[in-house]
Amino acid sequence: MRAVVQRVRHGAVSVADPAGGREELGRIDAGLVILVGVRDGDGDEEARWLAGKVANLRIFEDDAGKFNRSLLDVDGAALVVSQFTLYGDARRGRRPSFTEAAAPEVAAPLIDRFCEYLRREGVSRVETGRFQAHMLVEIHNDGPVTILLDSDVSRRGNPK
Q: Model pTM greater than 0.90?
């Protein structure tokens, strides 16, 4: 699994509604917007690892201005948005290939498990988008602070 984690002051996700307006699916104030992609072959182990990493990632400032606080420490919210395009491969040609991305029937339940693992880690508020929907994502990046996480690192034996 791969995640782009952005520290935000505000985040929201919406989709078009049948009447031509917008239906808001999730909204948070201070916390993290997490764009998550699932790779073919990912499973429960990757979802659990990624949720633990995100919940405990120290990217919030303490009183001295140092990155010493996690989402849990600041009681922040999480807005999780599925994004298969994180596995887009544009090394050849001009159109990205998405063959590394997991099939929707595999990815959707894994995104749900990732959200459940975030809750189990202690994240009190987890909002989500809608899987396979064309979403409008509003991100007010704070800092800006943006971190890329990839569960593949854990399989190579690098420190978690």
A: yes
- Class of residue 103 by CB neighbours under 10 A (exposed 0-12, middle 13-18, buried 19+): exposed
Q: Which is the catalytic residue, given 85, 99, 128, 132?
A: 85
Enumerate the domain spans of the chain.
2-154
**114 assigned to active site:** no
CATH superfamily of 2-154: D-tyrosyl-tRNA(Tyr) deacylase (3.50.80.10)
How far is 151 from 16, CA to CA, in rounded Å?
32
Instruction: Give the confidence band of 157 by pLDDT, cuts at 50, 70, 90.
Output: low
